[in-house]
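JOB MANIFEST
job_type = single_chain_structure
chain_count = 1
residues = 175
[input]
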Amino acid sequence: MKIFISGQPGCGKTTLVKELIKNYKGSVSGFITEEIRNNGRIGFKIKDIQTEKEGVLASINLKEGPKVGKYFVNVKDIEEIAIPSLERVASIYFIDEIGAMELKSKRFEEMLETALSSDKNIIATLHRNYVNIYKNYGEVIWLTRENWNEIFEKIKSRLNENQNKEFNNRNWYCR
């Protein structure tokens, strides 16, 4: 299962992923990105879902690194947080997000390609400019504020089906 969630800024992609994680009973790994605010948005942090290790994804306060818009990207934190989160064993991987900032790391881009080409179950938010690049890896869902609840229920249901299928496919032995 590979599901990509895309949409306009502010439609609730990260919130959706956080709610799906809260409602999933199996093992999860991956990362979340969130805004850093101080009288307006000054950057983004990246956080490992399992370890809760945090770093700076990008910031106007950084003075070096590749630039995306007004932000300098912190490739080191992407590689120290995002990559290990995709290397762990888990039932499902959440990637928030696949976009210009994250893809400034060639190592992350290679890890992402490996993960998407594998049988790993992945739910990822996808910047709208990258839909055509990644749509062949799985289902793309366009999220809006109006369809948020419907999409949440649809994906939550798919996660539960997937978890039940995984549970039923295990070999159980009693002595």
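[summary]
The radius of gyration is 16 Å.
The beta strands are 2-7, 28-37, 41-48, 54-59, 67-68, 71-73, 92-98, 122-126, 139-143.
exit_status = 0
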